[in-house]
Amino acid sequence: MTLKHQLEHDFKHRQEWALRRQLGIPNNRRLGVCTCMDERLPIDDALGIRGDRGDAHVFRNAGGLITDDAIRSAMLSCQFFGTEEIVIVNHTECGMMSAHAETLVKALRDKGLNLDDIQLDPALPDLKLEKGAFARWMKMFSDVDEICAQQVDFAIIR
Amino acid sequence: MTLKHQLEHDFKHRQEWALRRQLGIPNNRRLGVCTCMDERLPIDDALGIRGDRGDAHVFRNAGGLITDDAIRSAMLSCQFFGTEEIVIVNHTECGMMSAHAETLVKALRDKGLNLDDIQLDPALPDLKLEKGAFARWMKMFSDVDEICAQQVDFAIIR
Amino acid sequence: MTLKHQLEHDFKHRQEWALRRQLGIPNNRRLGVCTCMDERLPIDDALGIRGDRGDAHVFRNAGGLITDDAIRSAMLSCQFFGTEEIVIVNHTECGMMSAHAETLVKALRDKGLNLDDIQLDPALPDLKLEKGAFARWMKMFSDVDEICAQQVDFAIIR
Amino acid sequence: MTLKHQLEHDFKHRQEWALRRQLGIPNNRRLGVCTCMDERLPIDDALGIRGDRGDAHVFRNAGGLITDDAIRSAMLSCQFFGTEEIVIVNHTECGMMSAHAETLVKALRDKGLNLDDIQLDPALPDLKLEKGAFARWMKMFSDVDEICAQQVDFAIIR
Amino acid sequence: MTLKHQLEHDFKHRQEWALRRQLGIPNNRRLGVCTCMDERLPIDDALGIRGDRGDAHVFRNAGGLITDDAIRSAMLSCQFFGTEEIVIVNHTECGMMSAHAETLVKALRDKGLNLDDIQLDPALPDLKLEKGAFARWMKMFSDVDEICAQQVDFAIIR
Amino acid sequence: MTLKHQLEHDFKHRQEWALRRQLGIPNNRRLGVCTCMDERLPIDDALGIRGDRGDAHVFRNAGGLITDDAIRSAMLSCQFFGTEEIVIVNHTECGMMSAHAETLVKALRDKGLNLDDIQLDPALPDLKLEKGAFARWMKMFSDVDEICAQQVDFAIIR
Amino acid sequence: MTLKHQLEHDFKHRQEWALRRQLGIPNNRRLGVCTCMDERLPIDDALGIRGDRGDAHVFRNAGGLITDDAIRSAMLSCQFFGTEEIVIVNHTECGMMSAHAETLVKALRDKGLNLDDIQLDPALPDLKLEKGAFARWMKMFSDVDEICAQQVDFAIIR
Amino acid sequence: MTLKHQLEHDFKHRQEWALRRQLGIPNNRRLGVCTCMDERLPIDDALGIRGDRGDAHVFRNAGGLITDDAIRSAMLSCQFFGTEEIVIVNHTECGMMSAHAETLVKALRDKGLNLDDIQLDPALPDLKLEKGAFARWMKMFSDVDEICAQQVDFAIIR
Q: What is the ipTM of this complex?
């Protein structure tokens, strides 16, 4: 093989990596992951994947919960980017279990925040939260097994 | 040192790791990261951190965008978990740039979805999206520099 | 240093290793360990020692229990070989928890063994077990936390 | 293979490891080892096994001798845990060869111990030693080849 | 194989390496490279070759440009040493783009050099440069894509 | 140090690497090398440098000879890029010693080339070679020690 | 395979290694080497053998010369120990080339040694050197190629 | 440091290595070793030296015996090459212990060799062996401790 052919081959390979979304190439395992943003989660080792080598779309938020953003991200991944399987990972000793929502709400109010009239998404005024739902929106929980089973249900429904 | 003292010391060290949130211990760098769920992002290498060895809370969604979930996660991290700095990383060739929102909306409608009356968050019926805002909620974008600057502004405002 | 001196130095070092007991040199950590003979116990890693590099006397039997043999071994180690600390390690999913003693006794009787008149130690006819105590001698247990606490008590008494 | 199938497969593999005794799975080599608790014995290297990776049940006491505890442990291993072969390893420069039993007995009496009326096993009062047999119970020896051959005989008899 | 045969075989192999040019053996890939002398170019890694393990003739000058010396070297390599393919690598942020030729000419004149009557090649007085062409001879450039395309054209013409 | 400061520091470090010429930063060792393009020369190992990690400008042509291109490259490196030392490396068994210039000239003429009226540099018609000097321009040599000493002289003169 | 069979197999393998000469097992390559005792000779690397892993009998003396001791050693190796090939390695810059024999003889005489009536081998008075042959017995040489060719001749003759 | 100074320094270092004997530089440890040519002796590991990295002159013959050649080599090493210490290493299971000298003599005579009138050293006719001493010249031995002590005595006498 001439070096020219080798370089062309290498260039094509890297171009396909760089342009996966434009070319309609799914991730390696057609996999989505929904997990917590916690600083201690070895999520790649736990699942046996490399989340930065093309294996999976890894959605992470506080708790690893099915929020509207998780729905948005999963919808894009599954409907348009070729993902066919989603794994949800919650964990023990999660920060979401470290306090009751009401305690946190009180702490925020004590800092002077008006939680009844708050714009949740700075880029999207169309998104509204009903009055009094702020604590529910924070999504604190106390039982990790129960919450994990719920997330799976939420994801399946969609 | 007797082995008993050594084992007690090791046990305490691991307990503090496991109970960081309950004990009010922040992550190593008091750092939050907001980035895309893309399967190709070597986010740890790019920032010189270990996101699973205690360095940072890593929030990831489609696009690496400041959504209500990003606000929720950042609020918990900064107000209650000791985080003091947030880094936002967007990237070129993002899937969010692979199509116009209107194209995707049409594709979804063609599949039979009623996008005008949709429950965004399966666990939180209190969260409402105004009619006609579905495309904006998807948050597709076309200019990565512009979108990144906006996310920083959104995060600073809060 | 001449090679002669170096070789003499090396020889002395190895001789002291080989003749530790005759020279009255204790093990590195003056440590005894009592643990189960189970094939899955990474006892060195668990304690942060090297049991074959001189760190500790490691007694192992079925269960990691304080038997007369454990007493004999610990007595020699502590009274004559310089050991000053003993660590006892029991473990979950132990074979000693896999059945009730009575079930095993029945199984052995079904094989034709006369358990009432048995010489426990083939080298020591002086050692006798009272009639009907065979099941107790087998030392099956069901609660690993309870059994571990008991072993510590037994060891301290002595 | 979906990640779900892979995770199920991994989970089953680890469960079988954790529950070997309950599931009736023998150790890898259906092997028992009887050896000394000495801090210098590289027993794994000597036999070409990994005693903590599932290869063998490793019984260790002072001397690597066939005591009643060795009989108990070997009986459980062979009759109930699937072991089919036992290897006995004694060694030169053993602590059991460092003094005569009578010397040790005198040393213990000088410390004020009443060796004629002693409860050998703190958990098993049913175990009795005949008067005057204490020195034999200590099992000191002087010829390692002879003692090793005896242990093999003792083990075979049973 | 006797050691004599092995040594003869090894000797022949090394002799062929040492006498490649005299024996008419081309480089491994029948490849020539023309690139810049810049201290930052990982030219081997970029092309996937080992330029010092026999893979290629690597011509390097200021800019990686097709000069008369490049023509001379390529002619010898292709006409007499068996090379069949030439790769040209120019690079961004090249020193040749750091200033205009006229600026450099002025700087040299300010140092007192007479650029109109200069012997370009100390070993070859037969090589002449027409008056006023000194700046062109320096070959500064400003557009790396354009210059690279030109070099390919120059090389093909020959 | 906040991650922001660390990233700014890293960015500055890489920018200085990328913009060395524009910022007037010399190579690490203020060094230029002139050597042969031969595929077997381990020039980095021979000199104890890393030619692609910023240590030196490495000029390479057929023979490692001081041509007008070598003068051009060295002049730019020394006058404008901060180089203060030049090392010349010629080598035994060089292709330039594999034939007499006249033999090569005849070979080229036999292929139909008109060597008397040839444009040496396709990009620089101003560069002329006097009639009959073509063989000298090829710069074949026969004594590597002599040629190396000459190159040093040529370089010093300038 | 039972561990007993494995241990027997290993024991036999090591016994054959230890008792090679008694069992009539030749070295791995049926090879003898005759070389200099010089501290700089990487004789194993030079020949591609492991002289301490069973590959060859390595005779070394001052110079790597065919002396009566070399003949004795080679005779034993070839006639009784199964060696079939001998390689002789002499080297440049040998200590045997560092002075003329007469110079050394004079130096020894100046130290007071009587070189005319000397017992060459302290264990073998039967070995005699004719008067005046001491300098020849020292075997200094000046041309390594010539001396090497001679050694080969000497070895072949025998 | 300029590269010129570094290269000069490296050159001097290697020249001193190459010309040790001419420059009167002793080996690193001023050490001589006398040992057997056996293919199994890890002589470097046993002594903690590198015999090919300049540490010692390593004399090896059949048996590791003090022959006239050993005397010659040790005299040159100690009197002229700066050696100050000699270590003698003999070994168990040596080929020199595998048969009685008389057995070997008979075997050689049976092959037709005339052992009474033999030129021991093909290059030195001045070296004579008294009639009937051939078996003694072969130097077979049966007790390795005794022979080793003798070699030390022989070496000290000289």
A: 0.96
